[in-house]
Amino acid sequence: MTSGNRDDDETARYTANLVDTGIFRAIGKPPNEQYDKLRAAVESADTTLHIPATIYEELGGDTTADEFPSGSEYVDEAIRDGWVIVADHLPGSLADDEDITSPVERSRHDAHRVIANVTNHPKTVNQWDDTALVGLAVRLFEQNERIRVLVHTTDRALSKAVRVVVPHYGYYEIKCRYYPPQTVKDQIGVETNFTW
Questions:
Q1: Largest CA distance in the chain
Q2: Cβ(57)–Cβ(63) under 8 Å?
């Protein structure tokens, strides 16, 4: 399996698929039919799913372990099988909003503001964890000129943050696929969801 689907032409771009906690929670712990459908769709699309370390933690994994998998009943099997990758920790925290120069950190703070405005709730740690998908997208764009990013989420506010913040940093090859939580099981296991 490769780490992303590719076009056959000279201008081929890697397509990175980033997935949030809600997708895996909606599908449930393997073994189950929805998990098998997701795996088949990812393998048919010849891609890999990327999750930030904070999402791995939300799914019960231990990011302080020497190697993965390390304790998530939701994704450890997928990590062992090679179709889910846990990204390195992203810089930043909710408390360090001043004097930030890293685009990854700044994008997370921008995303946090968008999420807070959309949800009309006070700032929370959970909202900060959600910004990891935006930060990971920016990091991937910074590391690879020939990339496109698809973000998969069950969080409407996060979906808006992805669509607003990432292009603000000059990265336009991004799409966000929002799945209402009650429909994830029916929608997520389709190969075309993971291709550009």
A1: 48
A2: yes
* Backbone dihedral region for residue 46 (phi beyond 0: left; psi -120 to 50: alpha; all else: beta): left
Q: Which residues contact 90 (CB under 8 A, 6 or more apart)?
A: 52, 53, 54, 104, 105, 108, 132, 135, 136, 139
pTM: 0.89
Residues 80-127 pLDDT 10s = 999 999 999 898 776 766 667 799 999 999 999 999 888 876 555 567
Task: Collect all residues with Cβ–Cβ distance below 8 Å to 89 and sequence separation of at least 6.
Answer: 53, 54, 63
* DSSP-derived 3-state class of residue 159: helix
What is the percent of the chain where pLDDT is above 90? 71
Q: Alpha-carbon distance 16 to 31, whole Å?
A: 25
Sign of CA dihedral 136, 175, 118, 158: negative
Structural tokens at position 160: 């808006």
Residue 50 amino acid letter: H
- Residue 26 to residue 23: CA distance in whole angstroms: 5
Confidence tier at 78 by pLDDT (50, 70, 90):
very high
